[in-house]
Amino acid sequence: MSTSTEDTTPIRVFLVDDQAMVRAGFKSILGKDPRFKIEGDSGDPRAAVDVIGKLCPDVVLLDITMPGLSGIDTIPLIRKVHPKARIVMLTHHEGESFVEQALQAGADGYLSKDSEPQELTLALESVHKGKMYLSPKVAGVLVHRARGNAGPSNLAAGRVQSLTPREREVFQLLATGKSNKEVAKALAMSLGTAKKHRENLQRKLDCHSAAELALLAIREGLLTT
């Protein structure tokens, strides 16, 4: 009996995570499994987009919390250079607004970094077959939202979801304690523009200090503790 190419060809995976130790861990897990091949990895999401466009991996494992550019805002950039890529988001947090935004942006899966190795391989195989994959923790968040749980946390999540990609970048930097000057330098903008973004974010999110911004970012999954 002949074996199809589909059955024997390993799934080519590209890793995008700003933490080298995390990338090493995923490479160690997948490198031992003949069903997968690590096509490449990067700690810089902007640089990763160019490489992904050239290598055209089957699946991209994409961290959601990275400095400068979040995984959510990287999705459309990947789609532009490699429309057929299957994308699985990785996170330590399951903030409901970011789960929804990732799925709306075109993610094919959403996986908690606390998941067991077996779940990682299951997620990769599922999305490669064209199926959606959500870890049980993430699915629970969506069920909770679907049941209409309304409250202050949901209001805050809605405000975060309304931010533009640039505002999310500024939000993430401010939440880590960066000054207006540091934000301006990191995002190549004028100091006046950085100050304006900060004012707009404080008004939109109803957060009036770096500590409040950090707490909201952690709760919604944009910033790790």
Notable characteristics:
225 residues, alpha/beta, Arc Repressor Mutant, subunit A, 2 domains, 6-stranded parallel beta sheet
Give the helices and strands as they follow along the chain: HEHEHEHEHEHEHHHHHH
Major beta sheet, specifics?
Answer: 6 strands, parallel
Structural class of the helices, strands and pairings?
alpha/beta
Q: Strand percentage, roughly?
A: 5-15%
Helix content: 55-70%
User: Biggest sheet, strands in spatial order?
Assistant: 2-1-3-4-5-6
Q: What is the fold named in CATH at topology level of the largest domain?
A: Rossmann fold
Tell me the Rg in angstroms: 18 Å
Q: How many β strands by DSSP? A: 6
What is the CATH architecture assignment of the largest domain? 3-Layer(aba) Sandwich
Q: Provide the residue-averaged pLDDT.
A: 82
Overall 3D geometry? elongated
Which residues form runs of ≥5 with pLDDT under 50? 1-6
CATH C-level name of the largest domain? Alpha Beta
First CA to last CA: what distance? Answer: 53 Å
- What's the domain count? 2
Number of helices: 12
CATH H-level superfamily title of the largest domain: Response regulator
